Amino acid sequence: MKFKSSDGEPVGGDLTPMIDMTFQLIAFFMVLINFTEADQNEKIQLPMSELAKPPDQPLNEPITLHVTRAGRVIFYGQEIAINDMGRVLSREARMLRNKQKTPGEATIIIRADSFSKTGQVQELIQVCQENAFEKFALRAREDVAY
């Protein structure tokens, strides 16, 4: 359907706002995808669980720790032995205190490989508790039965 002005000339629409909005949406989704990928690591294959479900609300001050099959922890791209995590976690606790928060307010997200040993995850939780962290969230893949 063509629109015509009162003098009979065809009227065109300005597509500039639509193009601007399209580029803003593209930029928004690129940023969103980068944030969700920060919480994942391709070396970690999460175990399946029928009880796994997405969190109801965003976690307060999340700190993500990835436990590999070899029992090492990946934190911000660096592989660290569980024994050395105390130093790293004390630095994180100090950073939280600088932001006027306590380590107890932060949530430690543990993404352990399905072939990592349970004792290693327990040891990591103990190291976290020694540094005053109290909240933990264990991640697993949802086992969807069809």
Structure description:
By secondary structure, the protein is an alpha/beta fold. The chain has a domain at 48-142: 2-Layer Sandwich (Nucleotidyltransferase, domain 5), CATH 3.30.420. The chain has three helices and seven strands, in the order H-E-E-E-E-H-E-H-E-E. The protein has helices at residues 16-38, 85-98, 118-130; strands at residues 48-49, 62-67, 72-75, 78-81, 107-112, 135-138, 141-142. The protein has a five-stranded mixed beta sheet, with helices on one face. A two-stranded parallel sheet has the order 1-7. Strand 2 (62-67) and strand 3 (72-75) form a beta hairpin. The protein is elongated and about 80 Å long. The model has no long low-confidence stretch (mean pLDDT 81).
Rg, rounded, reads: 24 Å
Q: CATH topology of the domain at 48-142, which one?
A: Nucleotidyltransferase, domain 5
CATH architecture of the domain at 48-142: 2-Layer Sandwich
Order of helices and strands: HEEEEHEHEE
